Amino acid sequence: MTPIGLQTTARPDSFLSQLLAELGLPTQLANAAASAIVFVVVFLGVYAVSKVVVVPLVAKLLDRRGIEDHVRKPITLVVYGLLVFIAVGLAFSFAGFGNILVALSTVTAAATLAVGFAMQDVLKNFVAGVFIYTDEPFRTGDWIEWEGNSGYVEDISLRVSRVRTFDNEHLTVPNSQLTDGVIKNYDKNGTLRLKFTFRIGFDDDIDEAMDIIVEEAEAQEGILSDPAPSVRLVEINEASFGLQSRIWIEDPGNSDFLGIRGRFVQSVTERFEEAGITIPYPHRTVDGSLDRPEPRTTGPTADD
After folding, report:
1. Mean pLDDT, residues 109-123
2. Environment class of residue 28 by beta-carbon count within 10 Å: exposed (0-12), middle (13-18) or buried (19+)?
3. Rg (CA), the chain
């Protein structure tokens, strides 16, 4: 009697079984060997044909849609996994391993359920990685900021993303952290607006100060002329007027945006000094007096 789960449906009178039986194998062993040969041949045949036909077709489709390299790798791995699964399923079917296929399906379902409970965080990060690939909130090389952290994306995988900070620190970030919160992508639109507020005294000419700010912005290398630099009076406090400059830079992730802003602020400050425009500092005046208490005597007096 053949053990349960190892029974085959290969007929004793099949061509391959008869051929193996004629070579001296017992009928039961000939049937099992025939099924195994059919399984291997069908698996290799289906996988080879799929790899030759399906994989190039998927590659052409990805090229046509302009999919980037960091997205192509996981998609290709998923395609290979599906091809192996289909090849195994068809091989089981043609080989007549019906009972084994059902048993494997049951065991696989139970194992998947158990692994799913044990690896919830891993699966959560995996699903988040899929969303990153499909939604593309950021790409490799982008400058991003999230939860108080910022840096350049160096690699994106299905579980984690790797970010290099401005201090050259290497951060390995679970993908779920990058999809559950708000992410700032400074490179997404290709340009970035920088703002800086200059303060001038009440006796200074506001129009002259505005002209100086715009002129220095237009003369500074790295600041775009379109959109054009601008300046606005944004506040009046107890000590000064606040003039907010707005400048635009291109390719924020690869540009020296801190250097550009620093040189711009320095040039405006120097022009203010040449024009006699003051940069006031807030100060406070404290009024009042301190009353000194009369001295107290603690010992006996001379009259005692």
Report:
1. 63
2. middle
3. 38
